[in-house]
Amino acid sequence: xxxxxxxxxxxxxxxxxxxxxxxxxxxxxxxxxxxxxxxxxxxxxxxxxxxxxxxxxxxxxxxxxxxxxxxxxxxxxxxxxxxxxxxxxxxxxxxxxxxxxxxxxxxxxxxxxxxxxxxxxxxxxxxxxxxxxxxxxxxxxxxxxxxxxxxxxxxxxxxxxxxxxxxxxxxxxxxxxxxxxxxxxxxxxxxxxxxxxxxxxxxxxxxxxxxxxxxxxxxxxxxxxxxxxxxxxxxxxxxxxxxxxxxxxxxxxxxxxxxxxxxxxxxxxxxxxxxxxxxxxxxxxxxxxxxxxxxxxxxxxxxxxxxxxxxxxxxxxxxxxxxxxxxxxxxxxxxxxxxxxxxxxxxxxxx
Length: 351
Hints:
This protein is α+β, with helices and mostly antiparallel strands. The protein folds into 2 domains: about 1-65; about 100-345, 3-Layer(aba) Sandwich (Beta-lactamase), CATH 3.40.710. The chain is about 40% helix and about 15% strand. It contains 10 helices and 9 strands. It has helices at about 1-50, 55-65, 130-140, 170-180, 185-195, 200-210, 235-245, 250-255, 280-285, 330-345, and strands at about 100-105, 110-115, 145, 170, 260-265, 270-275, 295-300, 305-315, 320-330. α3 packs antiparallel against α4 (about 170-180) and α3 (about 130-140) runs parallel beside α5. The radius of gyration is 40 Å and the shape is globular.
């Protein structure tokens, strides 16, 4: 009897122990199951990103790194008139005695007329366009410049503004004498002031010409007096002149009827010099076509270059144009051809 009782008690203890053991395992098993479920869910979500096909991963990288518009720029010639060949124009007959000629519509970015635009030619004083551009870009127009002996060493028949050695004159006055009256002495005084020497300034001219796209140009001086290794093209002149007319200060100068420069001699004496424009339209010696407003421009003449002129003009709606004629046999032919070019291209042949 007692034996049976002991066995029953032993079975009861085992059952209670088993129930306690099972109760203690329950939370552990549940935790394990929950962990498995959580890991499975995370793995499922990550598998969509981490284990996508290679091409899908490449698309994600490309969209992240290459489709964000990091840089948006314009092509170099987007705002330029461009042509690589001659182009005829109704109402204007090619004058084959010229070296080159061109008409450029700045608003439409269109070459309206082109004749030998890319031929290398001697530029004469149209060289001073680049000298003016560098003066505006690198110079302080309020600077007072002392004129050297080198700047006054010109022959009687070479265009000057009557500077004298030791004169003190502002850079602005020199720029006006350079652009309006085409003073060779002003060109040298400017070059020496900005770069220290004519040679260093010529190097700067070539660097800046190349930066503007004028790759068929080579300068050896700031004024354009003839040297065999000093050349440009009608198209390169357009590029340089186009850069100048973007500066309102340049437009203001070429539109002047005259300018009075103030010079202080090395003895302290102050004098003035009146400088008139060199182009015939500004002087009133040539008439612009009806409907064309010629602001002004730059001339150049040597035996080798012939007679040259480049102009900035507007039509009746204020649309801007650049025109260039190079290598005319004389001034009469130069301005007759320029007038016909402007009339045909801007006003449709009105006289």
